[in-house]
Amino acid sequence: MKLTYVITFIILYLEIILKTIVLKKIELTNIWYTTFFSIQAIIIINLLCHIFKEKISKGIYIASIALLTIYYGFQTVFYNLFGIPFSFSTLGLAKGALSFKSMAFDAIIDNIGIIIILFIPYILSLFFIKKIKAEKYHKKGIIISILLSIFIIILTPVIIQLNKEDSYSAYKLYYEIDAQEKNIEKFGLLKATLIDIKRTVFGFDEKIVVEVNNNHVENTNS
């Protein structure tokens, strides 16, 4: 079995579990967007796992997918503890929870079943790690991966035009609205996290739309 297939399956699996079991919100359109935006993360992780010799590549796979799975588990616990997903704007809540270790521990115990479900594919892949092929990419494979990643970036502004005028359309979430939970529902956790980091570092002016008597009044808050 090729490592590329394993990485692809695990990332998409984690996203679907988060949507169905944790957020309890799943729509076909959102699955499509999540799959599309997960491709770039898959390409990057897959490339990192194929630019070295097989032993090192598998080591990178083990470490990177372990960190990803832990992150999904952390989001699961945080969401069930506070009713909202973690973002850098909620960092204070995370610090507060850590100050009450018993509360954080209880939240982990309460969600241990979901956490185990999240870890199942990763653990299974470790059992069969010797049968998984992680051949080193030559220049052609590296170039194809880079070009595919660039293609996804170029295609993004086109893809998010679908149902542009909906209240929480991909377009509005991407450019106008700061709503982490909606971002995760629409784009998936990995893309939503990148958006969150970008807005935290560079700032974000949210465009607020207020509807009064069927007339839209728009204003921008810094």
Folded structure, characterized:
- The protein is mainly alpha-helical.
- The chain has one domain (3-221).
- It is 70% helix and 6% strand.
- The chain contains 10 helices and 2 strands.
- The protein has helices spanning 3-23, 28-48, 54-82, 91-99, 101-110, 112-127, 139-159, 170-175, 180-187, 189-202, and strands at residues 206-212, 215-221.
- A two-stranded antiparallel ribbon has the order 1-2.
- It is globular, with a radius of gyration of 19 Å.
- Mean pLDDT is 86; it is low at 210-219.
As a percent range, the share of strand residues is 5-15%
Number of domains: 1
Head-to-tail CA distance between termini: 50 Å
Largest beta sheet, briefly? 2 strands, antiparallel
Q: Which value, in Å, is the CA radius of gyration?
A: 19 Å
Shape: globular
Main β-sheet, spatial strand arrangement = 1-2
Q: From N to C, what is the helix and strand string?
A: HHHHHHHHHHEE
Low-pLDDT residue intervals, each spanning 5 or more residues: 210-219
SS elements, strand count:
2
Discrete helix count:
10
Q: What is the helical fraction, as a range of percent?
A: 55-70%
